[in-house]
Fold this protein.
Amino acid sequence: MNRLTDKLAILLICILSIVMSDSFSEPVIVTLITVMVSAAAQLLTGTFTAAALIALCSLFCGVFPLMFCSFPLLLYDALWEKKWWLVTPAAVILLNIEKLSPQQIMLTAAAIAVTVIIYKRVSHLETTVATLTSLRDEVAGKNRQLAEQNLRLAAAQDNEIHLATMKERNRIAREIHDNVGHMLTRSLLQSGALIIINKDEQLKEPLESLRSTLDSAMTSIRESVHDLHDESIDLKKVIEDSISTVDSRFTVSFDSDISENIPGNVKMCIIGVVKEGLSNAVKHSNGNRINIVIREHPAFFQLMLEDNGKCTEIKESGIGLKNMSDRAAALNGRITFTPSEEGFKIFMSLPKS
């Protein structure tokens, strides 16, 4: 839009010079030719056709003196093409300069000066705008990168906090088991011994009550320790650690979308099947790729572990397969083993209690 506005201003100065001609038709023809060539040059900017039109019209400016009055507009288009030398054919006008009046020469010269000034101003402005746009895009890109990095840092911090929480729960469970659990066990044994050697009937009931209280406390402590231990198991971390120990000839992919709040017995079952499946693949598979997928659905959990080694039959009596089947059955789940030419697949489904 800036370029079009500037060209209209330059055209008005050119027309003032053109209308000084004594003829009526020539100014109209020159104006029409100039406008059409300039419009075509702007529409075809950057093409050979645009350059050829400017050069040809410049030659006419040198041959036909009145056309030279439109030279500033052609110069403006040539400057935008970054090819100012396209208007050099107009220098032929020096041979016929006397056919133009002094007023026309002065207006044309003024228009040329205005054209150069306008071009420098507008081109500088557009360069500045392009630079600012580039800087804006660069800043936007940096902001996106920073936002992504902040998200990664937040995720890493959350993961560290989660791991620290799991470790602390493990430590508390171990402390309770090693200290409080042992002391309660010793107290139970001592109370049992006192009940056996006691001969006083009056102390029999208090001792039985003491033993019952200690037994209830022991049961409560045991349940709390199990709960803490189950919560402290990071399923994804354990599986990733198991994957890291697999033979380097295998490429292992792991995809999981389960939540963190799943029962401990489900975690242990999945971990046990994954470890056994990885071990079997390393021992028996002739493939080089293992895929592990764990999914959580509204009513059940699913595990799929497969390798790409050829396997046409399996030994149902294998201890590893039996262990996996027993783990699934203990939670009322189902597990299948599918051998094929494309590989060996383990598929397990565990219902939510």
